Amino acid sequence: MYWTEFLTIAIAHLFAVASPGPDFAVVTRQSVTGGTTAGLWTSFGVGTGIFLHVGYCILGVALVISQFPALFEGLKYVAAAYLLYLGVQSIRKTLRAADQSATAVVDVSVQPGRAFVLGFLTNGLNPKATLFFLALFTVVIDASTPLAIQLVYGVYLAIATFAWFAMLSSILGRRRVRDWILKAGVWFERAMGIILILLAVQIAVNT
Fold first, then answer.
1. Do residues 33 and 110 make contact, with C-beta atoms less than 8 angstroms apart?
2. Which positions ≥6 away from 173 have C-beta within 8 Å?
3. Pick from 118, 137, 103: nearest CA to 23
4. What's the pLDDT tens digit per position in 79-91?
5. Which of 103, 125, 112 has its CA nearest to residue 53?
């Protein structure tokens, strides 16, 4: 019984985590501008953010949020504001840069704590993730499934999320790949900033 449930969760999660979204955009930006280490710490934050969603789903908070639209609307706009802030900061950073070269957008030093928090907040505040986990824990996972099994599901989802983005970080963080992408100089950072802003608008308007 639980294997069927687990496989359904694993397949649904695979499609969800592989689709472009805030997590993908942030990890990509971190990996290219800061290297593999920055990408991995950001990925770790994203993976840890999964525990937040699992925790409130098990406690029933997600169901409460879904029943009170004002709460969900508030979460949605906080998430949109956060992504908007990240996007604007990315663009402002390039406008301050005097050298229109690849080095203008490469972070010389990596701050693990900051990268982790960035990933955690990006995932934890994502209202689409809230809807995804609400669907898992109300539709896919049976109410009779033991709490211990649900926790195992949660651990798997967190590990699988980290593994996916860690793989992405290891690819995009390679010097050759970074150099090729950063040939665009500050335009890469501006493009990522625009993508984050568009995601913020999409969340605010469509979610």
1. no
2. 31, 32, 34, 35, 36, 37, 38, 39, 40
3. 118
4. 889 888 888 887 8
5. 125
Q: How far is Cα 177 from Cα 90, in angstroms, rounded to an integer?
A: 20
Q: 90, 189 in Cβ contact below 8 A?
A: yes
Q: For residue 47, how many C-alpha atoms fall within 13 Å in the half-sphere facing its CB?
A: 19
**How wide is the angle at C-alpha 48 spanned by C-alphas 47 and 54, nearest 5°?**
95
For the stretch 84-120, pLDDT in tens is: 888 888 788 777 654 544 444 455 466 889 999 999 9
With tokens 């789903």, the residue in question is 57
Q: Which of 49, 47, 57 is nearest to 158 (CA)?
A: 47
Contact 163, 169 (CB under 8 A): no
Rounded Cα distance between 51 and 185, Å, is 36
Distance of CA 161 to the CA centre of its chain: 9
Q: Is the pTM of this model over 0.85?
A: no
Phi, psi of 32 (to 5 degrees): -75, -45
H helix count then E strand count, the chain: 10, 0
Please give the single-letter amino acid code of residue 74.
Answer: G
